[in-house]
Specification:
11 helices, five-stranded mixed β-sheet
Amino acid sequence: MPDLNVGGQAVIEGVMMRSKDKIATAVRKQNGQIFVKTDPFISYTKRYKLLGLPIIRGTVSFVEMLLIGIKTLNFSADIAMKELEKEEAAKKGKDIENKPPKSNNLTLALSAVFAVGLGIFIFFFLPLAISQFAGVEKQAVGFNLFAGAIRLTMFVLYVWALTLFGEFRRIFEYHGAEHKSIYTYEMSDELVPERAANYTRFHPRCGTSFILIVALFAILMYAISDTIYTVWVGHPPTLLTRFGIHFSLLPFVAGGSYEILKLSGKTRDNAVTKMLIQPGLWLQRLTTKEPSKEQLEVAIAALKAALGIPQPEVISDKSTVS
């Protein structure tokens, strides 16, 4: 099966798709129409040769997708708010000007910093602190296995808790629609909901699988770094020292995990690869749900826009997001 350069993300009532030169976000409006915004996009890993080197490209891609993800989520939220404003205005007999929503760069930057900071504290520092205060043996491998288990458990419980809310369940359904539409494209099948519905919602290049790979790869990397520190200094690192070392190695962990994820996508038909990627696919049972035909239509609209395929049936906005 080919591994084509297309990826995406579920947003509020929609899907974002990224190709090698475009980012397209499709959102279903309350009147049933699909609004699609398309922007040019060339990754920094393609613009600068140094940033395209293995390991480095993974870190750069992770930061890029974090910023793009926050921006597209903000865009879909703006669409939803605009629809609510129209509904309220209609009830009062008023009309509001139909302008495309605009994102505030400062707000987006602050959102990105807050999201990263909160994520580092909850899923990075907190497992180390719990392991330390629980009196776990500070031997490198044992300590990092325990901390890694806590990190994975917290992530799974966090995702499971999100599934209890109807709004998040719809996002997970759009996540499933994103995967199914990408599979349809990868199999060179017709990009229509009826065909996309036949494919699985579990994809080896999913961000969920990436997080699982990061968690497992981190155990190995941090066990090695802690061992080197202990041998060099003569005693295990303290909590803050351990956090500092682990945090400084995070780009290498993310970059290495990215390379593993890319490799799994290219060799997904290999028997060994199929066995190794199963945990990530199992985890996607939480982060994806079966989509409806209407949700598949939205995902396909985003995919077609990212690929530059004309679709006169959607409302299109090709202006660049500031």
